[in-house]
Amino acid sequence: MQDGHRHEESTFRQSIDGCLEGAIGEYGLAPSKHSAWVDRIAPHVETLKDEYRTGKLPLLRIAEDEQDIADAEAAYAKLSEGAKTIVFFGTGGSSLGGELFAQLAGWNIAGVALPGQRNRPRTRFYANLDGGTLESVLKSLDLASTRFIVTSKSGGTAETLAQAIAALTAVKAAGLEAEIPKLFLGITEPDKPGKANGLRTLFSKFAIPLLEHHTGIGGRFSCLTNVGLLPAIARGLDPRAIRAGAKSVVDALLASGKPQDFAPAVGAATAVALSKEKGIKTLVMMPYNDRLGRLAAWFVQLWAESLGKGGEGTTPLGALGPLDQHSQLQLFMDGPRDHYLTVVRVASEGVGLRIDSELARIAGADMLGGHTVGDIVAAQSHAVPEALARAGRPVRTIDIAKLDEKTIGAIVMHFMIETILAGRLLGVDPFDQPAVELAKILTKERLAKGA
Fold it and tell me: Would residue 440 show up in a list of annotated catalytic residues for this protein?
């Protein structure tokens, strides 16, 4: 449903009003310019529809799969027997999607785990390779009650292989070699003749169970596959509800008559138009909810790695409200006019403890008295976009009525499709990452010389 420049999904509402001339004056897009960019994206929206129908873009069909969820649930149920800690090894897109979902269930937010989650094994993610950290972790864990889930699509990711080998070595040293098939689970591509897969070869030697990584969906786009859904399962979330939310966005794509009716198309056109017409160089993702902190980190990789090619792209920056009102907002409000903010708001009125009026008066903060903490956050999350607009800074808002599995599934599918469309509008391939391959080659060369 469209209302002005607001676009409704069943789970959230997007508004790009704050990016237009009518709201922010000369620094915003003129309606005619904005419409022209939205029209320009129309062929790419139609291409997506064709790719859904033909199955050429598996991402658009993933929400309809069911067997992989059943396989992941069965594998996790078996792996987690007797477990106190689940360790996830994987880097970049092999970790961020899972972290995003796990945080929805309270992971990495001290003190918010629900009673049912407290009875589950603890979840830990080690996405960054650090020698000191890995050594300390493996020494501190009770390895008999720890389980390791290792993810690499190609099976050749050096950082992930190093983690896996270090963990296997530690388990063997602890006298648990016979238990290795029960302590580890891998996610990697199916065996392909003539193609090396180090993780598959290594884990097969130890009879470690393997789940198949989707061959047509990789890295930063894999959060809706078993890569992202296994951590969701580990935290007690409903993976089918996540997929249902994602499907609602694909359904909206197929039902859209013109790009103006499809929120991700409007989002992509707006971002590209601001870059090309107004010199915007930095996109800020700023959710106002602790449980969406990793959403910002996930978006940063998605946007940067998909669009930063051939001199194109804009720099994504993660922020968290209200926290970053006290660190980065000064720059966004009064620095160079090259920032575009997306403020994600979760309805929070009436949520949380109520501020005692008398204590608020004593503290000289009368305006807080009688309000819940959620009231305060809601006021801030609405005041900041208004302040940005008054300062002539483009801002998009996304409003979420209820933050749950269906909503988060819709949000991630929205941003993935938005990113794909932005890439195609810019004339770049959103699915490759050619520049980083050189660093991998040089790393191998340096290690080989030092061997």
Answer: yes
